[in-house]
Design goal:
Length: about 300
């Protein structure tokens, strides 16, 4: 089962099993940052407030040197992780316990899915088609070079730190993919904040980034399949399932969606009806669910 599916199941079980808290709450001595699997809401709010406060503080600082906000978010993640604040006694176990991160991960995944959908709405598809060759060339170059460097790095790491019992080829493939894969959501955030998303440069860059990431995640699926002693054909099945779903969306779903938009009058009014907006959101979440369960990632 995919990562998003597991997060949804874990978080929903906690909500279903939620018990009534003691009437007095903190007045009765209840600690709001103590993780409770049957009532994860309070810790989730604490985690969210701390993350937003840290991100905002760093954004004000880095904004003075004209850095995109996403850079502040990345650095905030480092500060709140084991490297900095995680060294404070009990901070990690109390505020960000492993068992209590399911709700936070689910929130971030859903936010990313919706954000990337909105990014897709703003992409100039005509510009992508006009510059398809350039986008393909950039995507290939942006994947082959990092993969080669990652493989070279993997050789040095294997010789120095890895147990010889670990398969050399599998480790090399994993290291190459880990280095070569693109942080696609970060790329989208940078282009959005620099107002490059609707330009030709932004459209070509995003198209190249999508191709790079899809190939990277398929290679990662191949790596996991090989490590788990599964068939190497798993990656091929993932690729075929992805291609089939894209065709399914581009033809029957697209035709049906267009017919519904005309039938509901959304095209004539220039604004979608409530039903069309609901259907669009369902399609976005269904697509995220499908890409997650076939082993790519929900954000694709």
């Amino acid at each position: 089962m995919g990562e998003l599916s597991e997060l949804v199941l874990h978080f929903s079980r906690g909500l279903v099993a939620r018990k009534a808290a003691e009437q007095g709450g903190v007045i009765s001595g209840d600690n709001p940052v103590t993780y409770n699997a049957s009532d994860p809401f309070r810790l989730w709010v604490v985690q969210l407030v701390i993350i937003l406060a840290m991100t905002q503080a760093l954004a004000l600082l880095f904004g003075r040197i004209r850095q995109p906000r996403v850079i502040s978010e990345v650095i905030a993640g480092i500060f709140l992780g084991p490297s900095v604040m995680g060294r404070i006694p009990h901070f990690q176990s109390r505020i960000f316990p492993d068992a209590g991160n399911a709700g936070l991960s689910l929130t971030s995944t859903i936010g990313l899915v919706i954000f990337l959908f909105l990014v897709g709405l703003e992409i100039d598809t005509k510009a992508v088609k006009r510059h398809f060759l350039a986008a393909s060339t950039i995507s290939i170059a942006g994947l082959v070079v990092p993969l080669g460097l990652g493989a070279a790095l993997g050789v040095a790491i294997y010789k120095e730190f890895i147990n010889p019992d670990v398969n050399f080829g599998y480790f090399l493939l994993f290291t190459a993919v880990a280095v070569g894969i693109t942080a696609f959501p970060v790329l989208c955030r940078i282009l959005t904040e620099l107002k490059l998303l609707e330009t030709t440069v932004g459209s070509v860059t995003l198209a190249a980034g999508v191709g790079n990431d899809v190939v990277g995640w398929i290679l990662l699926a191949l790596t996991v399949a090989l490590v788990n002693a599964a068939s190497g054909l798993t990656a091929l099945y993932v690729l075929l399932a992805s291609a089939g779903y894209i065709i399914f969306l581009c033809y029957p779903i697209r035709w049906a969606y267009g017919w519904l938009a005309r039938w509901t009058g959304s095209l004539e009014r220039g604004a979608p009806t409530t039903g069309m907006m609901t259907l669009t959101l369902v399609l976005v979440l269904a697509s995220a669910f499908f890409t997650d369960i076939i082993g790519i990632h929900a954000i694709f």
